[in-house]
Amino acid sequence: MSKKVLYIDVETTGTNPAKHGIIQIGAIMEVSGIIAEELNLKCAPHSGADIDDHALTITGTSREELTHRMSSKEALLQFKQFLNRYVEQYDREDKCYPAGYNVHFDLDFIQQWFKMHGDKYGIGSYVNWRRLDPLPVLFMKDFTGALHLPDYKLETVCRHYGIRLEAHDAFSDIRATRELLTKLL
User: Fold this and answer.
1) Going by C-beta distance under 8 Å and a sequence separation of 6 or more, which residues neighbour residue 167?
2) Of 19, 55, 62, 72, which has the most beta carbons under 10 Å away?
3) Residue 98 exposed, middle or buried by CB count within 10 Å (0-12, 13-18, 19+)
4) 4-133 is classed CATH 2.60.40.10
């Protein structure tokens, strides 16, 4: 069976998945080490989501821009169509490894996003929860003295490894994360 990796990154209206919403999702589906498909969706947050102006400033997004984006529900439908092209969601043996930088943050938001739109199974229908995350590897390198950076933000780490990044754009972030993980492995 081929290994599937779902590289995933989200940009949000804040840091709390229970009250903030997703406004961009960048994803790469890798099958047997080859990029099968990439996805970059920009959407409005779900109805009722709190919007932190600082979070919008970080992503370079205006409130006005959000009003012209596809709905959160439409973005979720497109994301699920993307996933369904590669994973049989009801087959326990057919799941992806979720990958990303500090990926638990992204997975928490995505899980809440599914629930907000009435999908009780959520992202767990598609992933195996054995997370591939370069951040713990970097922390181990720091601990052993093999690496010392002023901080371990994705932007700092990518600069150190010579990886191109337009920080806080989910699609750029996930492409850089995939490259970083490949270098570290």
Assistant:
1) 154, 155, 173
2) 72
3) buried
4) no
Model confidence band, residue 174 (pLDDT cutoffs 50, 70, 90): very high
CA distances from 184 to 53, 106, 165 (A): 35, 21, 17
Q: Which pLDDT value is given to residue 116?
A: 93
Please tell me the pTM assigned to this model: 0.95
pLDDT tens for residues 121-156? Answer: 899 999 998 999 999 999 999 999 999 999 999 999
DSSP state of 69: S
Q: Name the helix (H) or strand (E) containing 171.
A: helix 170-184
Do strands 34-42 and 22-31 pair parallel, antiparallel, or not at all (unpaired)?
antiparallel
Residues 82, 79: Cα–Cα separation, whole Å: 5
Q: How many Å apart are CA 61 and CA 177, to the nearest integer?
A: 22
In sequence order, the β-bridge partners of residue 13 are none
- What is the edge-to-edge ordering of all strands in the sheet holding 97-99? 34-42, 22-31, 4-12, 97-99
Domain ranges, ordered by start, for the chain: 4-133
- Please count the CA atoms within 13 angstroms of the CA of 145 that sit on its side-chain side: 0
